[in-house]
Design a protein that fits this description.
Elements lengths: L13 H12 L2 H13 L3 H29 L3 H11 L8 H32 L8 H12 L2 H21 L3 H28 L2 H9 L8 H14 L6 H6 L8 H29 L10 H12 L3 H34 L4 H23 L6 E3 L2 E3 L2 H29 L2 H8 L5 H25 L4
Helix pairs in contact: 1-8, 1-12, 1-14, 2-10, 2-12, 3-4, 3-9, 3-10, 3-12, 3-16, 3-18, 4-5, 5-7, 5-14, 5-15, 5-16, 6-13, 7-14, 7-15, 8-12, 8-14, 9-12, 10-16, 10-18, 13-14, 14-15, 15-16, 16-18
The chain binds phenylalanine.
Phenylalanine (PHE) binds next to α1, α2, α10 and α14.
Length: about 450
């Protein structure tokens, strides 16, 4: 096959790709979402299912996505169309790309609002407002903050502007360099926080909550949420990693690269959990406090530890950066599509995409603030209104369905020869293991969890 080249250029090295993909994977999902859903779904058993999903479903799908992206070398819509044609299959496979673009818009719309909370907390922490706060004060501070729609709107707008700035310049330029420093920085600060939790938190209780599985707490929706989160946290199922894969050099090893990305992502999430839960239990907080969990717990730590203002502000700054490097990957497929197919300039495409996402973000602003209204969806009462619906729809359905389609395409629709050629890992055990997982285990697992989650099993 003639080798295609991405019109957007290529990562300068394999390390650059690893950094960018890890930048996409590590974000609010690890530090904000993982702890709060783990708290809501009862801890250990949920964590175990999530880890199993990362290994048995996430990793294989990640390799498949990168492989497809690198072979197609375009945005996910075109990539899927081209590869389907090459394999003599229907162009309908490009629907994977379309649903991914839609999911990207929807996810970024709420992601940006939450990232806005993190920006606000940089300033709250730096102003010294958190000094010496106890659980109650931290909770009421957060409560009054999220109930103010204008504040949420302002910070959401700021985050969208930041995101648009980087996207407009092209993903490779500034970001590659920034992520190289910020990721290790975030990691180091998590270790500082871990030190606090070990010495001041209910560390053993926290660890037990996280790692001691109690399967009686595992509801069917917990299973679906854990699987959905494996996709969300690894940025899978919507074309973000496929898009980044399209900028990957031909000679980089997809298998090893995926292992590194998934490993780092999981490590950050588990660290975040080990930081948060000891604080939760030491302060008599509720693990199931919902999306506000980290904003109700971390301020207590920063309010008490030496140099808390410094560490606290820095932590939220790094969290914003982590969210930033994820946010750009959420809409990169849409922007690349506009540039490749609509002949738009990158800047114009960025402005368009940012405006649409910003407007969609109003839904989430309304869900949390005083503008909120009660809501029930599929018979479930949704505490945070449309935000919960958006989250459920994208994370629990769109991403896993996208992942299912990707796994099926890579191992049933594509010719095995093309797959072997692109993955270039030979025909050894590693390849055959991946092929088997992706062809049978991943799809069956996905279908099982879906049917189970929908109450059909
Ligand atoms: N993986 C990101 C996080 O954990 C979120 C994300 C999802 C990014 C899907 C891109 C695509 O924060």
């Amino acid at each position: 096959m003639q080798q295609r080249v991405s019109i957007h250029g290529q990562w300068s090295s394999r390390l650059a790709f690893i950094l960018a993909a890890t930048g996409s994977a590590v974000g609010l999902g690890n530090i904000w979402k993982f702890p709060y859903i783990t708290g809501e779904y009862g801890g250990g058993a949920f964590v175990l299912v999530y880890l199993a999903c990362v290994v048995a479903i996430g990793l294989p799908v990640m390799m498949a996505e990168i492989m497809l992206g690198r072979r197609g070398r375009q945005n996910p819509i075109n990539t899927m169309g081209t590869l389907a044609e090459e394999a003599g299959r229907s162009r309908f496979w490009s629907l994977i790309g379309w649903s991914g673009v839609l999911a990207g818009f929807l996810i970024l719309s709420y992601y940006s609002v939450i990232a806005g909370w993190a920006i606000a907390y940089v300033f709250k922490t730096a102003s010294g407002a958190l000094i010496g706060v106890d659980a109650e004060t931290a909770g009421s501070l957060f409560g009054s903050f999220v109930s103010d729609p204008w504040q949420l709107l302002a910070w959401h707008s700021l985050f969208m502007v930041l995101t648009a700035l980087v996207i407009a310049r092209g993903v490779q330029s500034g970001l590659e360099r920034a992520v190289r420093w910020l990721m290790p920085g975030l990691f180091a600060l998590l270790l500082v926080l871990l030190g606090y939790s070990i010495s001041n938190g209910a560390f053993v209780e926290g660890l037990e909550f996280l790692f001691k599985p109690d399967f009686s707490k595992l509801s069917t929706s917990a299973l679906l949420t854990a699987m959905g989160h494996a996709f969300f946290t690894l940025s899978l199922g919507m074309g973000a990693i496929m898009m980044y894969g399209s900028y990957l050099a031909q000679d980089a090893s997809i298998g090893k690269t995926s292992l590194i990305i998934a490993g780092l992502d999981t490590l950050v999430a588990l660290l975040a959990g080990m930081v948060i839960f000891p604080i939760v239990f030491a302060n008599g907080l509720e693990p199931a406090a919902g999306p506000g969990l980290i904003f109700k717990t971390l301020p207590i730590a920063f309010g008490q530890m030496p140099m808390g203002i410094f560490f606290g502000s820095l932590f939220f700054v790094l969290l914003v950066f982590a969210a930033w490097s994820s946010a750009i990957s959420l809409v990169e497929p849409a922007v690349a599509w506009l540039v490749e197919n609509r002949d738009m300039s990158r800047i114009k495409a960025t402005v368009l995409v940012a405006l649409v996402t910003w407007a969609l973000g109003l839904i989430t602003v309304m869900s949390f603030s005083d503008w909120a209204f009660g809501f029930s969806f599929l018979g479930v009462q949704k505490e945070n209104g449309l935000f919960d619906v958006l989250d459920l729809l994208t994370t629990n359905f769109m991403l896993p369905l996208g992942g299912l389609a990707i796994a099926l395409f890579a191992t049933w629709a594509m010719q095995r020869k093309a797959v072997t050629e692109e993955l270039a890992m030979g025909e050894g055990l590693a390849f055959r293991g991946w092929y088997f997982l992706t062809r049978y285990v991943t799809p069956l697992g996905l279908v099982f969890v879906f049917l189970n989650g929908l109450g059909l099993l």
